[in-house]
Amino acid sequence: MAHSSWFSVRQPLAPRRRFVLSLMSFGIPLLIWCLVSYVPAVWHPMIKITDPGSVSYFSDGMLLNKDLFYKEQDRLEKEGKAPPQGIPANPVYLPTPGAVATAFYTAFTTPPQRRDEKWLYQSLGDSISVIFLGFLISSLIAIPLGILAGTFDLFSRLTEPFVEFFRYLPAPAFGALAVAILGINEAPKIAIIVIGTFFQQVLVVANTTRKIDTSLLEAAMTLGANRLHLLFRVVIPGMLPDLFRDVRVLLGWAWTYLIVAEMIGASSGITWFITQQARYKNFENVYAAIMMIGFIGITTDLLLAWLSRRIFPWQRGSKA
């Protein structure tokens, strides 16, 4: 039945239906955005002046609240003077999808308004380098520690109680301390990302390690494997596919902490670019920059998913 095929419990849909629904997951929000920003009857709470008429403080292209516009229009009509003319418009902070799409190009080609500011591609480069270094440092320490904690109860009892406590401390709370110790360049940003992802990684990796089938460990010990053999020939190879998926998820958290980190004593990066563009009221550039973060994130995730299928071909039947 068609109903059961669409709403089957924990059963995958047909490939074509999955593809259509994936398009709809992006298409529906885009459609709502288009309706709100293009259709006056939906949400156009302001008036864009096309002819200021006899109002001295009105100017062409000015955005006004509807009540003020109609009040001035009625007043001038009663006085027999030329009333202002205008069309319904969105607030300046809600650009249309077309304006944002154009900003994807113009944001890269438009020079900064101040000489000491950076181009968009430079800001993106700074943010990507901070993400890479922060997450790399965090992973190099957290992943081995998590594997040890998930394998040996000694390491679990020694580390996880403190990690459980520390992970509830918000990483941004250490921002002022990081700036005081490390300065105002890239180092405090990297430190915030390390703090924000390290403790989560330890717990996630430890939990993934514990999912190893106990029968595999028992079989290895029966065949005479020692602790090092169990760790390097059974535990680590057995958990690598799940570990790879964990890293993909945790990398998304790193991007979230980047936005927070770049708001603390920073003068570069994509968040700095967004802040500056919002200050100049170039909101189409703000939306474009925010979406660029999403595109970079999803592209990285798809690349890692593709790499996972290449490295672990026996896992192709699993859903990443």
Automatic annotation (TrEMBL):
The keyword Glycoprotein does not apply. Keywords: Cell membrane, Membrane, Transmembrane, Transmembrane helix, Transport. Its main location: membrane. GO terms for cellular component: plasma membrane. The keyword Transport applies. The chain crosses the membrane at residues 20-43, 128-153, 165-184, 252-274, 286-307. InterPro entries: MetI-like (IPR000515), MetI-like_sf (IPR035906). Coiled coil: none annotated. One of its GO terms (biological process) is transmembrane transport. CDD domains: TM_PBP2 (cd06261). It is a multi-pass membrane protein. It is found in: Cell membrane. Signal peptide: none annotated. Residues 124-304 form the ABC transmembrane type-1 domain. Belongs to the binding-protein-dependent transport system permease family. This is Binding-protein-dependent transport systems inner membrane component.
